[in-house]
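We give the entry.
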Amino acid sequence: MTKVVWGILSTANIGIKRVIPAILSGQRGVIAAIASRDAERGREVAARFGIARSYGSYQALLDDPRVEAIYNPLPNHLHVEWTVKALEAGKHVLCEKPIALNAVEAQAIVAARDRSGRRVIEAFMVRFHPQWHRVRSLVREGRIGKVRALLSAFTFPVASPDNVRNRIEYGGGALYDVGCYPIVTARYLLGTEPERAIALVDRDPALGVDRVTSGLVAFPGGEQLLLTSALQLALYQRVVVLGTHGRIEIAVPFTPPKEHACRIVIDSGASLDGSSAVVEEFAPVDQYQLQCDLAAAAFRNESAQEFPIEDAIANMRVIDALYRSAISGRWESP
């Protein structure tokens, strides 16, 4: 089994802290090259991780015939442009979320995929974590009865105006950055697409980005997702799945540290003091490593791609509807 040869498109923090270590510690990949517009920065990161080549331009990386897959962690407004270029260069792509700034823009990726015959995957690592597999299984087997609502929050303390999350021209903002996780996981658990959405947005008066976005998303079976996403607030995340016969609570649903175990709580609701709750723990796991290994298998056609790029566009449509609703003040359809 030969390993997939990766190229890393930029020295973004998510790559340095999460994805590069995940590829290197995984079973299915090696990293041949990294690109940075700051050539010295690229050389420094390459040396740190033992990457053989660094390039001073993104295009130079795409032109490297030894590279067969690209990881794209560029700022949001560059996802479509460089993913399309990578596909047209004959590379498979793992692109960070959100796949685009809107669903219409994302269609260019579908067209490039179809022309190139390469695969492209949106990097939502949460769907590869065993705790989410378990929760979906519990929901499908009816452990908590019929799911009626999901309460989901993800907040993150980013105050610096120089951070890409706070740069509106780069596609910054809470909904793009962290609000996408409650949406994708609700769709993952319910297995259906929302019918309508309504949002309330608080924008930073100086930076213009949505610093707090809350939304209500309605699904065709009557299920409701109530989400809150925020930048510039204390770090917090939690998901509660509410059913007719109980609830499931995921303590650290989106970014559980790979060094620590995580847990879910399953409660029949027989009492309010928690005595009816059952706790399940999951051994430490690197969800980024799982994602990269499974992406490599899909790139080699050794396994099916569970979440095609059309799934990313469906998620993008919900984000679009929430942003439209914040302007219109009405329910909007994805």
The first strand starts at residue 4 and ends at 9. The chain has nine helices and 14 strands. The CA atoms of residues 69 and 92 lie 4 Å apart.
